[in-house]
């Protein structure tokens, strides 16, 4: 447990995951206010687990490659003045008869590596993935296919129900059925034989798992990501990397094509990682078998994994507040981004509260037909609308757009991020036009959403112009078809807020059209 003195200052921590196929590192700066920023990510393929399953030992060459990479990673961590390095080793190391010798060599580099069990690997992977994807209470299956093992977890956003590990991995399965020097095509006879073997190995795990009412499937690891990227290239599926979804029917088509190619030809397939070309079919076997056995039509793909789980586990062990732990992924990421940019949280929360009041009341009188998903985006846009002040107050709305667009906002898809960025962009100055450069990146319905939400946010921001919280409630009421009243309950003088609202009344009338006129009234029907 870190001391109170250490918690009062920033800490830089490096997290290293020594996998069967690759070694990954995450360097993170953790602030006392529970925000963190990723400083560096590193990954090197070392094939540590080559021939472990057949010989029972790590090969000398593989160990030397791993030690050299770890030495490099330690140097990188030191360059960032890391206060601590947390390192774990998984399948290949835990199964190796000579793991003590390997761990001793790693210790010479400055690494004290902890070998984790298969179930602990599954738990850490679950932590890493669930903390970065918007799931809520939906029952979800998490699948991570490594080089030597596959981890399966069933749970929701906040806890897991079942977890298990299989002695099935992309390298392990490849080495069992395909020779080290195999560069030829893989016949469907051999492929089906591999799949029967995989299904037999996962039989007990599937029997133990509660598969009822599964709502989502999420896949992590380089194997699943690469298969999804190949499918997207082959079938010209749209969307950004963060929105990758792999359908079972597309996976089957990809498998058929990959098996028909030689190793040299597979390396040239658009979207494939050439370093994985020799083991990608082994990984595809496992994924297809699992999707068939769990009746999964599609799987959402994430680049989160065990290294992120190490970070979340570290934060929890260091005493991250229960308040933050109970938040959704979206709330947590928005809060962390806001705090990283030193926003005025009181003002941000006041504006968010007022914006939601305006959203609900304008919905009630049918000024718009937006729903709960848009309401949620308005809330987060309101909290982040002033992040641009971190760069400069002048044109801070433009800076806010840039920050929100480029931040790692986990749990949101690209369209949602673009909507929030544009809502923050247009909370000041003119009403957004659909031909705006930043609006061109979203579809027509999303553009309409931005126009309405940014107008509501603009009003909410004006209602706390003095940053004193003097406007307690704000709601729109309709007196007739041509008259809308903005009713306010105030506490104390609010001249700044009055002037602010007067400056944007015309924006309201422009956005909601139909000749609607807006009147602003304080409590007691006195004109503000």
What does this structure look like?
The structure is a single chain. The protein is an alpha/beta fold and about 525 residues long. The strands form three sheets. Strands 8-7-6-9-11-10 form a six-stranded mixed beta sheet, sandwiched between helices. A five-stranded mixed beta sheet has the order 3-2-1-4-5, with helices on both faces.
Shape: elongated
Mean pLDDT: 87
CA-CA gap between termini: 55 Å
Estimated share of beta-strand residues: 15-25%
- Structural category is alpha/beta
Rg from alpha-carbon coordinates: 27 Å
Residues in helices, as a percent range: 40-55%
Report the uncertain regions: 1-6, 524-528
The main β sheet shows up as:
6 strands, mixed
Spatial order of the strands forming the largest sheet: 8-7-6-9-11-10
* Extended strand count: 15
| Count of separate DSSP helical elements | 23
What is this structure, in a nutshell?
With 528 residues, this protein is an alpha/beta fold. It is built from 23 helices and 15 strands. The strands form three sheets. A six-stranded mixed sheet has the order 8-7-6-9-11-10, with helices on both faces. It has a five-stranded mixed sheet with strand order 3-2-1-4-5, with helices on both faces.
